[in-house]
Every structure is written in C-alpha cells, then in structure tokens.
Amino acid sequence: MEGTPKQPSNLSLLLQSLLQEARQLPEQGKVADYIPALAAVAPEQTAIAVATLDGELHTAGDASQCFSIQSVSKIYGLVLAMNRLGDDVWQRVHMEPSGQPFNSIVQLEWEHGIPRNPFINAGAIVVADMLVSHYSASKAALLNFIRKLAGTEQIWADNIVYQSEKEHGNRNAALAYLMKSFGNIEAEVPQVLDHYFYQCSVEMSCEQLARSLVFLANRGQDPWTEQMICSRRDAHRVNAILSTSGMYDQSGEFAFTVGLPAKSGVGGGIAAIVPNYGVIAAWSPRLNSFGNSCRAMFMVTRLAEQLGLSVY
Amino acid sequence: MEGTPKQPSNLSLLLQSLLQEARQLPEQGKVADYIPALAAVAPEQTAIAVATLDGELHTAGDASQCFSIQSVSKIYGLVLAMNRLGDDVWQRVHMEPSGQPFNSIVQLEWEHGIPRNPFINAGAIVVADMLVSHYSASKAALLNFIRKLAGTEQIWADNIVYQSEKEHGNRNAALAYLMKSFGNIEAEVPQVLDHYFYQCSVEMSCEQLARSLVFLANRGQDPWTEQMICSRRDAHRVNAILSTSGMYDQSGEFAFTVGLPAKSGVGGGIAAIVPNYGVIAAWSPRLNSFGNSCRAMFMVTRLAEQLGLSVY
Amino acid sequence: MEGTPKQPSNLSLLLQSLLQEARQLPEQGKVADYIPALAAVAPEQTAIAVATLDGELHTAGDASQCFSIQSVSKIYGLVLAMNRLGDDVWQRVHMEPSGQPFNSIVQLEWEHGIPRNPFINAGAIVVADMLVSHYSASKAALLNFIRKLAGTEQIWADNIVYQSEKEHGNRNAALAYLMKSFGNIEAEVPQVLDHYFYQCSVEMSCEQLARSLVFLANRGQDPWTEQMICSRRDAHRVNAILSTSGMYDQSGEFAFTVGLPAKSGVGGGIAAIVPNYGVIAAWSPRLNSFGNSCRAMFMVTRLAEQLGLSVY
Amino acid sequence: MEGTPKQPSNLSLLLQSLLQEARQLPEQGKVADYIPALAAVAPEQTAIAVATLDGELHTAGDASQCFSIQSVSKIYGLVLAMNRLGDDVWQRVHMEPSGQPFNSIVQLEWEHGIPRNPFINAGAIVVADMLVSHYSASKAALLNFIRKLAGTEQIWADNIVYQSEKEHGNRNAALAYLMKSFGNIEAEVPQVLDHYFYQCSVEMSCEQLARSLVFLANRGQDPWTEQMICSRRDAHRVNAILSTSGMYDQSGEFAFTVGLPAKSGVGGGIAAIVPNYGVIAAWSPRLNSFGNSCRAMFMVTRLAEQLGLSVY
C-alpha cells in the first residue's frame, strides 16, 4: 500500500458515487444460471461496503441485502481448518496458483490428487473433508464461526440453493472421488460434498461480509472483539494465497488492476482485503466470462485506485 | 507493508548477520548444471544488497561479484517491451499465473500459443520477439537499458554462457517454433532465440541488480536520476505479475513466507521489490528443487520478516 | 489370416505342450491386488481353450476352473447394448483407440465426456448406463445373455469380488460423475456403477469363455444353436474395436505379435477372436506391467504363430 | 479376410463403377490448403488402382496422374529404417495407437520424447533422424527405395511442395526440437526436417502406389521381382501398426468400416493393404475433417465391402 490511504472526509459519499457509476454502466455479463435458485436473483441489485480496522462501516446500495456467498465461503472454511489442524493442512493441499479453470480435473490427476490451492474447488473439497473429519457437526461449526466473525446470529444457509447445488454437483463429485482414489479424502464423499454445498449456500450481506473478514486485514485479530481469530502468520498466509488465486482465472489481471488479496463467488460477491486498513465487500449478480461480478469488479477497482490501496 | 519498515540504525549490520547465518546453514541444493559454464561457478559465494528509495545501498558478502542473472533478465526485457509497444504487449502474452513448470509446452498448446505470463520461458521468448522486431539492435538496446538502470557501463553478457545456452536450448526452440506455428512469433526463430539467450547470459552483481530495479519500488521513477523509467501503472503491473509468477513453482509459497514481488534465476540470484522502500538482491549458486537459490531464499525471507516487509 | 489355418491332427496336444512351456517359464508378473478378493487367487493356475466354428472344443490345464473375467465382460455388455440401442450407442461412445491409460480421466475431460471407445473403463461405464436405462433388470439381463452364449446356467457373479470392487471403485466413480456432468450418463451414478461392478465380477472358465464368443468369429452367428447373436456388421465392428483397443496399452504390440482382436482382464483372462476359425481363451493370474496375463499372453502368442492365425 | 476374396471376372469394371459413384457424390470436404502448392491441385481428380499378388494391376480414373503422397511416405521411411536398424527402431518410437491428433505435442511431452508410433508426425520425424544418421544421402536412398518398389525411375519429389513444407513446418520443428531436448534426435534438427519434408513431397500415381506396397500384402516379398523387401515379421508389424494408427483420428472407424491396414495423406491419397491379396490405392484431393480423402474413403470402403476384404 502506498503509504497511509487517504481517509476521505466522507468515504460513504465516495461509495455512493461509485455505486451510481456502476449502475449506469452499459448492461453486461449474466447471472450464474447453473442452478435455478441462483438464476432467479434480481440482477440489478448492487452494493458496496467497507469495514475499517477502527470499527467503522461505510456502505452504499443494497448492502444489507443477503446473497449467496458461494466461493467466498472458502475463506471461512480454510481459516477454520487451519485453526483446527495447523500446518497439517498443507500436506493435503498446496498453496500455488493453479493456472487452470477452478474446477479442473486434469491438474488434479497430474498432481496425484493434491489440489494446487484451497480456493479452487478441489482444494475447498479437501478442506471440507478436514472439517467433516474433525468436527462432529461441521456445518454448524462453520455457520457459528461465520456468525461470530460477522457479529450476528442472523446468518443462514439457503436451503433451496443447498439442494440445488447437490443436484448439479456432478463435477464436484468427480473431483471428490478422484481425490479419494488417491487417498486424499478421509470421510465418505457424500458427507464431504454435503458440507461443501452447505457452505456454498450460506447467505450474507456486504455489510456482514466486510465486517467478518476484517481480522485478515488486522494480523488475525478481530478489531471489534479484540479476539485473535487466527495467528498473524495464518492471516498473512490466507492473504498471500488470495493474492495469487482468489479471483479464478482473472487473478493475475486483478493483481495488476486492483493489487489486493480478494475472493469472488458466482453469487456476484467479492471480498477484498486491504492489509492494515480494512475490507471492501461488493456485490452485484451479473458475472463476466471469468465468473466475477462485473459491477463489483468495477467498484472495487475504482475504489482501490482512488484510495491508492494497491499493495504493489 | 505493515506501516513504515523499521529503519535499523544499521541495516548493514543486519545484512552481515544474515549472511553469516546463511553461510553456516547445512549445505543443501546444487548448482545449475544444464550448461557447463554455470556448473563451474564457485558454489560458496553468497551476497546480499539492499538499495533504498533514498539512494542508500547496504551490502554484505560478495555483493560486487558478478554472476549470470538468467531469468531475472526477464524483468528488463519486459519493461523495455512495455515502453516500446505499450498495451499491445498483452495481446500476445497474458498476465495470469501458470501453475505449470516454467518451460511447459503443454499449456502453450492448450492456450494456442499465447503464454500465461512474461516470466515463464515461453512468455519471455515472445517478449524477445517483440524486441527483435522493434529494435534494429535489440541486444545492444537491452544491454544499454540495463546499464542505464544500474548507473554503470561495466555490465556485459558472458560469451561462454551465451554460446552454451544456445547449444542446450532445444526446449526453448520447441517453445518458439510452437508459438510461431500459432502465429505468435514475428521474427525468425533463430534470431529470437539469439536475443533470448543473450539476455539470459548478462552478468550483474547484487549491488547492480538492487540499484537497477529500484524504479519498480518507486512508481516507475529512478530515485538517483529522477528519470521516469516506466509509467506508475506499468511499475504496478510488473510487481503484480512478479507476485504471482516470479519464483517458478514456488511463487505461492514465496508469497506467503516473504510476501514481496520477486524474480529468481538459475544463476542463484533473487531480486525482491519492496514497494515504497527499495529492492533486495541476494545471490548464492546452490538451488533448491524449484530452481531458487537456497541461501538467497533464506536471507530474503529472514530480512522480510525482521523488517516486516510483507505486503500482505 | 494367412489362408486356412492348419488344423493340427491334434490341436489338443499342441495346447498341452504350450501349457507345459508356459508353466516352466521363469516366474514373472504379479496377481492383481487392488482388491483383496482378486489377490487371493492361486497364482499358478493356467489354462487354455480353443472353440472352433465347427463346434469343437480343445482344452489344456485348468480350463474348467472359473475365474473373474473382469474387463472381458465389456464385450458382453457392448453386444447387449448394440442389440438394444442400435447405432445410437455410437453417439455416446467413440470407437477410436485411446492412447491413454484405461482409466484416464484427462482424455475424458478433453473430449467433453465422450469416451474414446467402449473397452476403456469410461466407455464401459457409459455402456452400463445404457443397459441400466433400457433394461428393468440389467444385471439379470447381462447374466442371462452370457449364460445363453456359453450354453450353461452355471455362471454367476462372485459376491465378494462384487462388494470389493464397489469399495475400491473411487476412480470409476470419478469417471462416472464427470460424464454425468457432461450429460453422458442418464441413470443415477450409483446404480450404473452397481451394474458395472457386477459385470466385472462375473466368473467363467476358459471353456465357457471360448465357446461364448465364437459368434464373433462367425459373423454374428452362434454355430451351436445357429442363432444370430448380433448382426454380421456388429460382429465386424466389435472385432475392429478389439483390434485397436482390447489389450490396454499393449494393444499395438499385441496387434503385431498376435494379430488378432482380443480382450484381456485383470483376473488374468484373455479372449482372442480368430475370424472364420474360432476363439482362443487363456488364463493365468499373474499380470505384466500393462495388466495382461504373462502366461496367457505367451500361450496365445505362440498358438497364433504356430497356426498362422494373424489377420495381417 | 473372409475366405478367398471373390475375384470378379472383371475387377476393372467394378473399379470403374465405384469411380463413377464417387464422382457423383455431393461435393464435400476441402483440399488441404496449409501450403499453397497443395491448395492448387484440381479438386475433381479421382483415381483407384488395385495391384494383386499375381501381378495384375486394375485401375480406373486418373490412376496414372501423380500427386503428393505426403504421409503415405511414412511407410517407405519406416521400412527403410527397419531394414537398416532392425529392432533398435523400437527403442525410439513405440507402436501403440496415439489417441491424439497426428501432430500432438502434448503426448510427446508426457512420454518424454518417445512418439507413440511411426505414423504420427513425431514418430516419422524420429524415423527421418534414423535415416539421416545412417545414410550418407538419405533423401536419395529413400527415393531409390520407392523407385525400386514401384518398378520405375519416374518418381520425384516436387520441389515447390518441398520448399513450401519447409516454410510452413513450424509445428514439426517444435516436435523435433522437443524430442531433441529429450535426447531422441541424433542429427541436427534442420537436416532431419529437410529429409522429412522431402519425403512428404514425393509424388506418385495410384498405379505406382499400389504396386510399390504389394510386398506388405505378400509377407515381405515383391511378387514381380520375387525379392524380399523386408522380413515376413516386419511386414506383419507394419500392417499391425497401420491397422491401429494409419488413418489419423479416424483409424478406429476405418478398422470397422473397411477392416484393412491403411495409410492416408493430406494430398488425398489412401493405400490399403489386403493381406494375401494385394493393395488398393485411391486418390482424390478433397479431405474430410480428419484429413482423409472423402472420395478415396468412399471407394476403398465400398470395394472392401463388395469383395469381402475386411480382415475381421
């Protein structure tokens, strides 16, 4: 980050103005439609929220509207697994960029069932296996962890999305069985997938998302509760992996245009970590060809530029 | 970066002490031996240098000893091409991490001759083609550019390494011809490879390396001459690509343990950019299994930890 | 085939002598051990049987001993599916050689879920899906078909092998789910795999195997019952695909050394079709590195040489 | 083959009639256009010739018109290399089907520079290297071998095609350099490619093609001269490899529809071996999507059906 980010006298005004611009962009992209429940979302919704280390929360648009966080949930799963298993996590999933589509089965075959990183599907499924194997009720454990981070009990998984994911999850099942054939899945595959799909179907708002991840910008510590959520080392690690692998096959371009560790999901959400400053969460359902939200990308990119937030 | 790095009253002392530690590590790794000229280097040599934005240079060990910079040269080639061709560069090479070995021909085939980024061999060969096609004397242009950045005329390519590279460059020739079959090489392949091998055989010391790259830590400006070497945007871009793709198949791990944009070469050199602070250059010939210098990795990692330099 | 094969006054004596030779070969290869039930088979057992178009059956060794036919069962499944679905079969599985391991998931991905041929695992799983989707009781239908061909009711699936296959079938599950994700599996995956594993666990003797497949050497007609088992065209087709793809990754070498359409299984069985002459079935449990029985290969090769059976 | 092929009182009449049918087919396919010299061929030309073991030659259409034999030349190169190097050939090229495009570089990488068989480009380039390394004048040696087999001195390479191939041979150069990087090319790559492109540019007529390959249908012996061209074993071997790998990615389908060892070239020629009977050569320039001549395929298929020539 280039020195201390300028704290605009009115960050909220800036967010408001970016939101306006985003809403006036020519319509582009399309809503994820591989499951009906996602395809049904009103495509014009748009939101942005910034939570800072000093406990402030600035928002614009539909920032309290909940949406399906999908792959953004991989962050919570990973931190929970790191807390429980420690460095053993890295025996079963690497932390290198994948250079392949998020659901690639080819690379998994080449690397003998060890996923390249925890943010591609295969890696997140291995992490789900860790949680299933180490928690008696892994779904509840994950949900409680998210609620604690977001400071609210009002977070749930959407049951229709959850069931839909299961019915359309054949490729994820293929990834899981392939890893099991290599000995890298311990629990039964249906149970692992059940956790994985549950996790993907959690719904949160931009406000909740931003607040819940501030610990990653704060060396592992939640600034509201002052509780250590993970070690400083692990917060660094998550940010590092996000930087190379969080934005699907647009990660490299995002590193250049935004320069922040970030994770996107096909529900249209993006969470970007600004070390020592806070978290930006943005959302709008229409996706570009990489699976990243068009409007959320626009808002995050412009905000990072205007505040000089790039870490490079 | 976590706030302003601590400026140790005596950075030189710290470098000295890291160098001592590195020299006392149990011997590990081996010198690159794919060409005889590299294999003949005295393996115990070790050096570190730090050049800062305020024009200071701190060193320890063999910091004025020249060595073969090899893949570190890809940075200079890229900046020169960006300056000459502008954004057209990105029509012919992507900026995504590769997730494949640095010399992978498989990925190049899948992606129809467009390399994933300019720091894998295929990408650097495309950049070499750009220079060959746009400069009447591309080798001299590159050498002059490096000399200008390093502030000295005393930099040359090593002729024995250069000839050796040519004789052992069959895989690089395969990459080049494959790209030419896809229409992504304009000049004649032998001429492109000639430039590429020349570039790899340039010799520099850690002092020269550190000084020459400070502009990347300084938004494109050389602090000594105050000249703009490249645009602020392009400096960001290079740092971003280095962050995901500069350390071969150890880039992800390096992002975690060090958290800095960096490039390594099989000559044993590493250059790490610390945005808004300076450049660390380290060197020692023995390489780990990823092709990165064992001792240089150790010193850069420890220095980044002790000064809190990680960008994440 | 080079003219009419010599009919030795005593083919049985020749088989006897080949069997002796095979038993005296230095011990090589090892019994399939990926499931315990297969690993427990007495490894010294050896048998050969030849059934000819004129209804004769010549045997030597343990030719009435039943063994797990494994992949040889893919022939029966395919013929049954061709009879039921006609040329629609070839919309969902190709008939080209694979050039990849029998259980390759990489090729399946590249070819968008359409297996290269019905004798690699993925192809046989698609065929199993066809049977499951078109027969109310596909396992019984298959068993009855085999019994009819072999002219005996005394053929069963081995329940222990069947259960074992299920427990060790993760890679096959991965193949099946991947094909389902491409829309190339109609029934539920567990049901398809159930049929597939059942089929693999059928047990037959060399006598039964030889007799049951004579229709393929006789333009589709069973010489004992004079019933048309499949069309002449389909018999040709099966033989053609067996010629390029029946012997795993040793198919090309087998085409040269033996020159006959043939199928092997990891139970140690091999069935070779001699067009216009008959069928050779051979068995011995120890496998070479390609998964083909060492002794069965030896006997089939020598017999083909001595009788001049190669089709080339 | 199903018994002795019916010798039609007038095979020439049958060929005539097939030719008529072929000429009346709806126009389909397109002439190879990757090099201008091939694209310039008159697309309507069509020919068929059958040479039998008893020394007869039946023809129809433009059967004495010469055309670029292209990949059909791989047969001559292979036989010449087998004669010179014996079984050492098979240390450097396998005899398994490839299951990949004829010019695949991916498979070559996986298999560490050893091509799957001598009829894909990489395999033929290795064979060219053998010839270049073992003959002082490999191009003349090859041309003389072809002339001897065809019983005429009137065969030449086309110089324009030869030069054109060189200029458009970047992918073949990539294959060659990749193999050289694995140590599987002994001579200098440009010299090897020079031989390879020369070989591809040889021109022959259907009459010459048919006659020159009869030895493969006759256990290695030329029926006109009674000379052994290669061993019986090697004739079998060539036929076996042709059966699985001679018709590009349509080899499996061709095995079913025709059931003969055969080789095609992008000049529009096809040569099919009928063991113990003779050779069919057919030609017409328009190619289907696999690179095989539409009309030549049609005529060979119908002739094989009508004479019952399938080996299966």
UniProtKB/TrEMBL annotation, chains A, B, C, D:
One of its GO terms (molecular function) is glutaminase activity. InterPro entries: Beta-lactam/transpept-like, Glutaminase. Substrate binds at S71, N121, E165, N172, Y196, Y248, V266. Gene3D superfamilies: DD-peptidase/beta-lactamase superfamily. Keywords: Acetylation, Hydrolase. Homotetramer. This is Glutaminase. It comes from Alkalimonas cellulosilytica. The lineage of its organism: Bacteria, Pseudomonadati, Pseudomonadota, Gammaproteobacteria, Alkalimonas. The gene is glsB.
